[in-house]
Write a structure and sequence with these properties.
352 residues; 6 helices; binds 1-hydroxynaphthalene-2-carboxylic acid
């Protein structure tokens, strides 16, 4: 015989009241569930026009939050209170206009920049290294590394910022410190310093054991790898040609909490579906297509994308890609919390 808990029974009511007074709860009582996340698309036209408008009305020096950055943040409709893109990651788009400087600080949240637009004269200084930023470059500022941005050029620069700040906040491990000795740290290492020391062809004398990043990956190298591997037709059934920005020290994921990937879909290519517990935020570098998300295998909501659009695919939703151009390849940059799930033994996948 099965019994339902009768919450209107005066004895049960009295128990619930007494437990609440002592900050206790019964296993049988209901609790609020975290909102379910859905796929979402942020068209570049909307992001970019709001970002440019922010450049007119928001003074970089006048922002008084800890980060003091002019970024437009991608807000997941189910996470508006946290103002967060996924449960773990934040993707924002930053504008640094000619002559502007974003002051030096460091935080326990790991961050990265993926350059969208710029003339190659602006840079991020990470731990004293001037890292010049050209479109398509990926610059890492791992956990607790000092960083400031400066644009000495004539043109504005626009890049994506990705941080694991919602994860660090969830773990009560978010710390932030402003650089005390002026707006910028001194430049003590030239552009390329980390790549020359840690790249795959590196000095015999470099010992990578015990070293830490930062690092910057140049778009020319990424694009060459994509083209070469695409030409060799080594593709992943679910993602086309799929490359990871390997951590040059460990050979593993880009950073412990954020994996950075780049994929290539051949003209007309349709991938097979799969689902996994990690969630992913995408940014289209070039090309156009459709990502079908949710439902069961092969049927779901279609997110139609073009150059520079950003979209989110939550964990455990079936999804597959289609390049709708018959002539041009599509290239998509993405960030994933997969390294977190894998390191905790929580990565799980089902595939067609
Ligand atoms: C931050 O420090 C930067 O350093 C960019 O450029 C975006 C978003 C949230 C929190 C801190 C930066 C950020 C951020």
């Amino acid at each position: 015989m099965s019994h339902q808990v009768d919450a209107t029974d005066p004895r049960v009511e009295a128990l619930h009241r007494r437990m609440a007074e002592h900050s206790l709860g019964g296993h049988w009582q209901t609790r609020a569930r975290a909102p379910k996340l859905e796929a979402h698309m942020w068209p570049w036209s909307a992001i970019y026009s709001c970002l440019m408008e922010s450049g007119e009305v928001i003074q970089l020096g006048g922002i008084d939050d800890a980060a003091k950055r002019r970024t437009v943040q991608l807000v997941n409709p189910a996470l508006t209170e946290q103002k967060s893109t996924s449960r773990t990651l934040q993707m924002s788009i930053q504008l640094v206009k000619s002559g502007e400087r974003a002051e030096c600080h460091r935080h326990t949240a790991a961050a990265l920049r993926f350059v969208v637009e710029g003339d190659g004269t602006a840079y991020t200084n990470v731990e004293g290294e001037q890292m010049l930023m050209e479109p398509g470059d990926l610059v890492l500022t791992p956990n607790w590394t000092w960083h400031d941005h400066y644009n000495p050029g004539k043109n504005s620069i626009v890049w994506l910022d990705v941080l694991d700040v919602h994860l660090t906040t969830y773990l009560d491990a978010t710390f932030h410190e402003n650089y005390g000795e002026g707006p910028a740290q001194p430049i003590v290492k030239p552009d390329g310093y980390c790549r020359q020391r840690l790249g795959v062809v590196r000095p015999r004398t470099t010992t990578v054991a015990g070293q830490t990043l930062p690092y910057s990956y140049k778009w020319t190298d990424t694009l060459a790898a994509l083209k070469e591997i695409a030409a060799a037709d080594r593709r992943d059934p679910h993602d086309g040609v799929l490359l990871e920005y390997a951590n040059p020290i460990t050979g593993g994921p880009t950073m412990p909490t954020i994996g950075c990937w780049i994929q290539w879909l051949a003209p007309g290519e349709t991938t097979k579906g799969h689902r996994h517990t990690s969630s992913t935020i995408y940014h289209v570098v070039e090309g156009q297509g459709v990502t079908t998300v949710g439902g069961s295998k092969g049927v779901g909501e279609g997110l139609t994308w073009g150059p520079r659009d950003c979209f989110f695919v939550p964990g455990w939703k079936w999804h597959h890609f289609r390049n709708t151009s018959k002539k041009e390849p599509a290239i998509i940059f993405s960030v994933t919390d997969r390294p977190v799930l894998e390191s905790l033994g929580l990565y799980r996948e089902e595939a067609e």
